[in-house]
Amino acid sequence: MKNKNGIANIYLVLVFLVLYAPIFYLMYYSFNSGGTMHEFEGFTLDYYREVVADTRLMIIMINTLVIALLSSAIATLIAIIGALAIQHVRSRRAKNTLLSLNNVLIVSPDVIIGASFLILFTIVGIKLGFTSVLLSHVAFSIPIAVIMILPHLQEMSPTLTDAARDLGATRRDVLTKVILPIIKPGIFSGFFMALTYSLDDFAVTFFVTGNGYSTLSVEIYSRARQGVSLSINALSTLIFLFTILLVIGYYYLNQRKSRPAMHIAEQVAEAGVPR
Amino acid sequence: MKQLVNTFLAILIVAFGLMFLASRLNSAEGYSGGNTLTIYNWGDYIDPELLEQFQEETGITVIYQTFDSNEAMLTKVEQGGTVFDVVVPSDYAIAKMREENLLLPLDHSKLPNLANIGSKFMDLSFDPGNLYSVPYFWGTVGIIYNPEMTEGIDFSSWNSLWDKRLDNNIFLVDGAREVMGMALNSLHYSVNDRNEEHLQEALAKLNRLSPNVKAIVGDEIKMLLANEEAAVGIVWSGDASEIMDENDKLDYVVPEEGSNIWFDNMVIPRGAANIEGAHEFINFMLRPDVAAQNTEYVGYSTPNVPALDLLPEDISGDERFYPPAEITDRLEVYDNLGKRMLAHYNELFLKFKMNKK
């Protein structure tokens, strides 16, 4: 039994090594004064300076963050409504159909989604740029957020809402004081998932950028043709640190929020069941 | 609930703060002004200082966008939705864009610096009379090899690749035109040969090459060769110069039987908004001092003759990238073979790939 665990641990360590080694390799060479990813000659911060001095790159980086934050916030709001609606559907078959339709959007290839957005936007006459990128990011983030929120809704006991209604809570109270606090972990995970999807999406974004508006993934991809310059390493390091911060923030929120949610649930449960 | 609302408010505030910052940066750079020029070019394919210089000299603000393949660029230009004023496609893409009526004719009276381009690089099959395009950079297809691993084999002929000593030691780039062209050249035929017998001969010759071929790969060929995974590779000169930057043991040669010559060219796509500015930009890029500076930055071969004199001797005198006349005379541009012939080339190349064990 103990032996089995040992193998499992080694396996786990190996997997993490494989996943993280390239990232650390890349970060290590972002400090290389040699200018290539071959031999480490000496420590330098030149590439970080280059990134900060490159106004165009900074604008693109800000664009990427703005798109990620806005699109995942909007997508999460829509997904909350969507998840509630799906949960409300009585017929089992209709519910399953809706869920499958949601899942199809997640698994369908990005390239196809991107191309169809491009066609849609040009037909409707939306100019390619900020709006088109934002809209498409919102669109592909919604199904992901729905998937993250729905299980929390399904886990929630329906007696909770009934009890709250019995105790005289209005519809609004039920939503804001009972349902939303309970599904909060799902909302946050949905938001963060959407955020990461938006940050690194290339395929969809490539099709819908235009008029001087670009995001990091598109920019890095087209620069990579000439070999990846070390300033890209520096930039990637910065982004990696940023995402680590996000994860820590998410962890912190998760730690704090599960307690109050339980608290309310308990309160309602206690109040709802008279002794 | 309160926490949810607060978090979302915080996200919105941060997002709008960043947006404000971006718009400040944008206007500081002049991107939101009226007189702008949108350029669509390959990634990292121009010296950024030149864009600033152009801006200072003309007052036109440049919006610069990048793509990574001709196909991707074609999709964006065809679909519309974005206005591009200057685009830099490769030769065969220009032929295609011309056929599909996606290009605006150039006004040569506004391009006096066109005279700087060497006559060898003008009036080529993809754009007779240079009605639509102006050469930007050019290059060749050739052999990159590692002298330490090839026991002094002389690569000045394509036929050296068939040497028994190179067993399982060659990487080919995954392109039907490149590989078929190489085989045709080795038989002293044209890279645009349409003669069925010649093509079958080339296929048979390729099949005899397969014991030497380690793999047929895409863009990763650069990394594989720089890491010395094989001794020899068939690559474009642009890739070769990058590989040699990474690993200076390697050397590049254009075989004497001839080879392909490729071009990236500046064109003005239909629907351009600032046609006047586009001409100004193209003329600016044709200036010898500008072309020389750009060549030093990008590292490909320039078609600009006076610019060569301004370049350091170790660039302009490098015969690997500026081959002597007896070789350049034998270099050929890929003709547009037409759909059926191209399909045939692809089919033959596929047969070769399938035969390879």
UniProtKB/TrEMBL annotation, chain A:
One of its GO terms (cellular component) is plasma membrane. CDD domains: TM_PBP2. Keywords: Cell membrane, Membrane, Transmembrane, Transmembrane helix, Transport. It comes from the Bacteria. Residues 61-250 form the ABC transmembrane type-1 domain. It is a multi-pass membrane protein. Its main location: membrane. Pfam families: BPD_transp_1 (PF00528). InterPro entries: Bact_Polyamine_Transport, MetI-like, MetI-like_sf. One of its GO terms (biological process) is transmembrane transport. The chain crosses the membrane at residues 7-28, 57-86, 98-124, 130-153, 174-197, 232-253. It is found in: Cell membrane. Belongs to the binding-protein-dependent transport system permease family. CysTW subfamily. This is Spermidine/purescine ABC transporter permease. It comes from Paenibacillus borealis.
UniProtKB/TrEMBL annotation, chain B:
Coiled coil: none annotated. InterPro entries: SBP, Sperm_putr-bd. It comes from Paenibacillus borealis. The keyword Signal applies. This is Spermidine/putrescine ABC transporter substrate-binding protein. It is found in: Periplasm. It comes from the Bacteria. GO terms for biological process: polyamine transport.
